[in-house]
What does this fold into?
Amino acid sequence: MTALSRWRRHGLGILGLLLAALAVAAALGAPLLAPHDPVASDFAQGLKPPGTPGHPWGTDQLGRDLLSRVLYGARVALFIGLCTVLLTAVVGGLVGLVAGFFEGWTGAVLMRLADVQLSFPFILLALTINAIVGLGLRNIIVSLAAAGWVVYARVVRGEVLSVKQREYVQAAAALGLGRRRILFRHVLPNVAPSIIIVASLQFSQFIVAEAAISFLGFGVQPPTPAWGSMLSESRDFLYVAWWLAAFPGAALALTALGINLVGDWLRDILDPKFRV
It folds into this structure.
């Protein structure tokens, strides 16, 4: 079965692509699609319900347009998710390559460090690191990356241990090729699909984790529109203004769902164990 035919059969993958594309379009097109400045307050328009002229999704307690804030919140969520995925993939991938290819005390130390980190819950570790390094967009990316690299390291190390035993790698070593060339020329391309799969599955985890940290007040700070902080601000108005939580929550849930479905589809495409 070809990749194209598997893609056509994977209806959930198509749905995931549509949801992810919608989130990307909202993020990129926010300056054009947003009807108002997302941080501009108008107290006379506070807590207007959806359908109010000029405010199709209503307003929050400060009179800020909710649609504009949700659109700009997509930019924050996807930016943090993308930066964190790239950082963790590079750091965790390199650690996994070194630990798997250069066995001995180097690999043992790196994997014991990974084992210790895996003993801590991901969100708790990210929250603790974020509280230490401080608030802000850059620091939340650093904290999420510091908590998430270990997954790549474990997966890549397992793949490297298998790949380096194959005939073409041993033949390259027999021909006198240097270890660095073998590692990046022959081993890395064969473990790259695993890195892509993990990255696609972790993307949504990082988005949800950022929302959780912002919800607790340690992430993106107001008035910057972020879905987590918007949900936090809506707690005091749930009984009188349901839309304050409904629209940011739906945006977060649908974006995470779409990216997860894309990750499952990429796993079916790239992982040989799922090619049936």
